[in-house]
Amino acid sequence: MSSKSRKKVLLMGKSGSGKTSMRAIIFKSQLAADTRRLGATIDVESSQIKFLGGLRLDLWDCGGQDSFMDSHLTAQSSTVFRSVHSLIYIFDAESPELLTSDTAYFLKCLRTLRDQNPPSTSSSGSSGEDGGPTVFVLLHKMDLVPVDMQASKLAEFEAEVTKKARESGYQGGLQFYGTSIWNETLYKAWSIVMSHLMPSLSSLRTHLSHFLSLSSASEVVLFERTTFLVISSVTNEQEVHDTEWDERRFERISTMVKAFKLGCSKIRSPFSSLVVSTQHYTAVLDSLTPETYILVIARGEIQPAAIELNIRLARPHFGKLEAIGMAR
């Protein structure tokens, strides 16, 4: 398999920060309440995940206890950090050592990451600002922070960590997101991460835009089938210009539909599609390809049957795109 279709991603952070819980929710379809029973990661747990368009995600969940972290940074550094496409580093928002020892470990990881993936020799799959691996920083457990303080806490944390990273000599890009397993912020961050790993998203958006136009839809959203992460979306700006849209609406849908699918599986009733029709809008969520679901939202006067027909007619076209790597 080519290096372009196989991406190594590190999931790191101090013990108890929530790495394994978020991995179980996103990739193993566990409910947030069920993650309390998960144990700590021992050393490194590597999993190969088949994703959209032929992408194979090689996800390394690295144990965060001090002994394991020290081993990752010394004896195992070449094994763990070499040929990495992206690093996802998790901080516990309520840790008393957030800007001290927790950040110190993160800075050590950045140095080791750069040592093992120097910009001049990094793989073509790497896509940080300077050619090295991309680094995503998730300030996790934000539900424990008062709502009116969450934005300022994330901004202050980003500024301080970025400053320390620059002072330590790291010049690559850092992308910061606040997350919680109890709301849609987790799906928002991971949708961005996964979209970053996928090739040719701009080409896929072009095909979705054609579908939106031909079906007279207001909005079209593409979800990955298993994780229900948002892959791409297009909007008819003229139709929604005067409407206030929730910026997190797609991730809220991901959270609700995935929970609904889990409920269906528990009563041995497989989920296939969903239709919502009101006076103001019609929404159809249905399978598009073997690896995707599509959500089509249109004006209320457009009948669900018309949308379902358009989806059915579009399946062969998008199926071919998926077979060749989603428009690569």
UniProtKB/TrEMBL annotation:
Keyword Nucleotide-binding applies: yes
Gene Ontology annotations of biological process type: cellular response to starvation; negative regulation of autophagy; positive regulation of TORC1 signaling
Keywords, in A-Z order: GTP-binding, Nucleotide-binding
InterPro entries listed in its UniProt record: Gtr1_RagA, P-loop_NTPase
Stretches of the chain forming a coiled coil according to its record: none
A GO term for molecular function: GTPase activity
Entry GO CC: fungal-type vacuole membrane; Gtr1-Gtr2 GTPase complex; nucleus
Subunit structure: Component of the GSE complex.
Family that this chain belongs to: Belongs to the GTR/RAG GTP-binding protein family.
Function: GTPase involved in activation of the TORC1 signaling pathway, which promotes growth and represses autophagy in nutrient-rich conditions.
Protein's recorded name: GTP-binding protein
Organism lineage: Eukaryota, Fungi, Dikarya, Basidiomycota, Pucciniomycotina
Gene: FGENESH: predicted gene_12.44
